[in-house]
Design brief:
Elements (H helix, E strand, L loop, with lengths): L1 E5 L2 E8 L3 E5 L6 E5 L4 E5 L5 E5 L2 E8 L2 E6 L9 E6 L10 E12 L9 E7 L6 E6 L7 E4 L8 E10 L4 E12 L6
Antiparallel strand pairs: 1-2, 2-3, 3-4, 4-5, 6-7, 7-8, 9-14, 10-13, 10-15, 11-12, 11-14
């Protein structure tokens, strides 16, 4: 285990076989994880008091009440559905032009779950302050793509938000956008 200073506090930090950096603080109900492979941050619902390397395995330790628990960080088990929230940054599809989304295709696979449906939502904005839901889809239906249809109006900026509970079989591979320019900042 290594204690590193992060925002003025000493926190347990580790890098393990999955090429991820875990930053954990016991006052929070989650830990931050940075994937060195995909260059993204995400959260996990486990909090660790410290980490212990036992090459090639890393262990994370945490306490609940007076019981001390050990987790093997090299193993991932999916016994329950995992809650997921994905949100893109603001997407500007072309400089200084309004765009109308004709089709938005999300490629991947989600096992449909009636109790916790997975939804994909498209939001748009003209000023990056007020955002409006333009369209959405809530089921993959056993297919490997979800089609989100035409947006209701033109925007300069878009955000794609997806969320729900998924199992270990879920994956995403691409997002395809079919759009057309509108207005191009010309007076009409």
């Amino acid at each position: 285990m290594a204690l590193h200073t992060f925002q003025g506090q000493k926190l347990p930090v580790t890098i393990y076989i999955n090429k991820e950096i875990i930053i954990s603080k016991t006052t929070y109900k989650y830990s931050r994880v940075f994937s060195l492979i995909y260059k993204i941050w995400f959260k996990i619902s486990q909090v660790f008091d410290n980490f212990v390397p036992d090459f090639p395995v890393y262990y994370g330790y945490h306490t609940e009440d007076t019981t001390y628990y050990q987790s093997n960080l090299n193993e991932e088990s999916f016994t329950d559905l995992v809650p997921v929230h994905i949100e893109t940054r603001s997407l500007k599809l072309s400089p200084n032009a309004f765009k109308k989304i004709i089709r938005f295709l999300v490629q991947g696979y989600i096992n449909d779950n009636e109790e916790y449906p997975f939804g994909v939502y498209l939001f748009g904005s003209t000023d990056k302050i007020k955002w409006f839901r333009l369209n959405s889809g809530t089921t993959f239906g056993g297919k490997q793509s979800m089609l989100i249809g035409r947006s209701t109006f033109t925007c300069k900026h878009y955000i794609l938000v997806a969320g729900g509970k998924i199992d270990e079989e879920a994956w995403f591979s691409a997002v395809n956008v079919d759009s057309e320019d509108r207005y191009n900042n010309k007076l009409r």
